[in-house]
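Hey,
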Amino acid sequence: MPPRTRRQAKRAVPPGGGSGGGIESLPDGVLEHILGFLPSAEAVRTSLLARRWRHLWKSATGVRIGCHDGEQLLSVQELRNLVNHLMILRGGAPLDTCELTFGDFGENFGSHDDVSHVNLWFRQAVMCKARVLRLVSLSGCWLELDNLPLMSEHLTTLQLYGVRLHSKLLNFSRCLALEYLEIEYCNLSRVTEISSNSLKHLCINDSVLPHDPRTRIYAPNLVSLRLDVLRYRTPMLSSMPSLVEAFIKIDMECSDCCDAENYETCDCESCGMADGSSNCVLLKGVSDAKTLTLISIPEMFVFKRDLRWCPMFRKLKTLLLNEYWCVPNDFVALACILEHSPVLEKLTLQLFSEGLERKVEMKLCVSSTKRSPAISEHLKKVELKCEVVDDRVLKVLKFLCTYNICFSFE
């Protein structure tokens, strides 16, 4: 075995003079890992403790910039001196986690000076082989990240908040280890596609998407998907054969709406695709999920439009739907998804009336002898949650009875 270098020996053996039971007895590598959990400003201050601590912070495995100092959140301008020196003095030491959080842009926002600094820090973190990278802008303005692709063999988690994004940045073909992507309160109005072969978990929440064309999401190995409070148009989902769990909520912030009575056959500008195609927008992409939540307000048409090409949900075992799917009198949407879920085991319907607080939960019984052949033979548990048993709820119960799903008095 070759002899260890002097630096390796120094890091492996604690210096003399320690009591043997305190923190001084720990090797340098462990201390650098511990320092990585501190806000970087505090980690730098440890250099004053003793000679041994003078340079340990430079190799801390975590960089945490702009953490809350009581009630005060520092601006980019206030953080410049610390971050610029920190990144230079680290000398490219590898990172495990990098968190960049800041408040106002300050007076330099108009000249984009602050924006350039943040983009530089963001790219330097990637170059330092960060596995987890979080960028949070609480300024109230969109921070525009450069439209350049990321290249990393180490990045596994990327979390973005309060930034404006472009298509090249969200093309992760050169981030082969990326598995977790969270986009919250971001502007994706110029993003035409989000693509990754390695991505397993994707969450897009309270973010702006384009009017046209729809953003396409290509992530064939995705395991979990959450789309919640999307402004303007919903994205178009490609096939996700590995999907286990999906949550999609469409509320009033979305502009996917149509005033036509016959939305099933409507081809108006709002309903159609920008390229003239008539493909399924959401349901086909989540058709392989085992657990699925679909929530929408009545004005939105996109789910009902997708029912023209309603896929088979061949793996779906747990399904939660809101009142959007339970519109009397024909219940076409509810009937369609039930009859296309051959292995469904649990169904939950949430029917909430505005202005009422009292909640009612009813467990329904699925007849084993008179079960309708149109629904899953595995369906054992059906729950209906509402705030009051009104006429609308009674109509839903009556419809379910056509499948021999009835109220249980047990």
